[in-house]
Structure formats: structure tokens, C-alpha cells
Write a structure and sequence with these properties.
The structure is a single chain. By secondary structure, this protein is mostly helical. It has a single domain, classed as Serine Threonine Protein Phosphatase 5, Tetratricopeptide repeat (Alpha Horseshoe), CATH 1.25.40. The chain contains seven helices and no strands. The two termini are about 30 Å apart.
Length: about 120
């Protein structure tokens, strides 16, 4: 999911499509992938493929930061100066409440060819 999102974000191998990139980064971010959480925050901060939302950017940076992403910590400090105290508190509460969805490891297991072709 993350790699597909990067391809759509950069236009490498597929047409550049920030909306598709945002959708795939969201799916991967919801599963707990820190790089997708950071990239989704960037999209919200810049309004690429999603409506620009500094509170949503802050939320995703805070989630990534909690997993040790150093650049997210820097971005949180910058955004803190641009958000009202209420927006910052709401975004932080959303980040603190985040629980990644469980990953289905079987999604990456190819089917048995004998089962497909009998």
C-alpha cells in the first residue's frame, strides 16, 4: 500500500495522482505504517490529494512522532505555532486516541496455483 501510494505521489510507473496517493497512504497509515503516516501528514499540510488541514497534518505527524519519526517531531513544532490552542488540543487528542487497525498477514500470501488452476 505504501509503495503504491509513493508511485501515485511521484508518478513513477503510473500517472501522478495525489488523490490516489492520499487514499493509499491513508490505508497504510491506518495500519500503523509510520512512513505512510508521515507522508499523509505532508499531504494534509500542503493540501495535495486532500483538503488542506493543518489539524489533520498535526494529528498524523503526532502519530508518526510517537513511533519515533524524528522529522515528524520537527513538523509538529512548526505546526504548533500555526494552530489555535483548541485545534492543537483536538489534533493531539485524535493522535493519542489512534489505534492502528490489525494487519491481515494473509493478504500478502499468494494463493496456491493448484487451487487456482485445478
Amino acid at each position: 500500500m505504501h509503495n503504491l501510494a509513493v508511485a501515485f505521489a511521484q508518478g513513477s510507473g503510473v500517472d501522478k495522482d495525489p488523490v490516489q496517493a492520499a487514499q493509499w497512504f491513508t490505508r497504510a497509515a491506518d495500519l500503523g505504517l509510520v512512513d505512510s503516516q508521515f507522508n499523509l501528514a505532508v499531504l494534509y499540510e500542503r493540501g495535495l490529494g486532500v483538503g488542506q488541514s493543518l489539524p489533520d497534518a498535526y494529528k498524523w505527524y503526532a502519530i508518526a512522532s510517537a513511533q519515533g519519526d524524528a522529522e515528524s517531531k520537527v513538523r509538529i513544532e512548526v505546526l504548533s505555532t500555526q494552530l489555535s490552542p483548541a485545534d492543537r488540543a483536538s489534533a493531539q487528542h485524535a493522535a493519542d486516541s489512534f489505534k492502528p487497525e490489525p494487519m491481515d498477514r494473509n493478504a500478502n500470501v499468494p494463493p496456491d496455483p493448484a487451487a487456482l488452476f485445478g
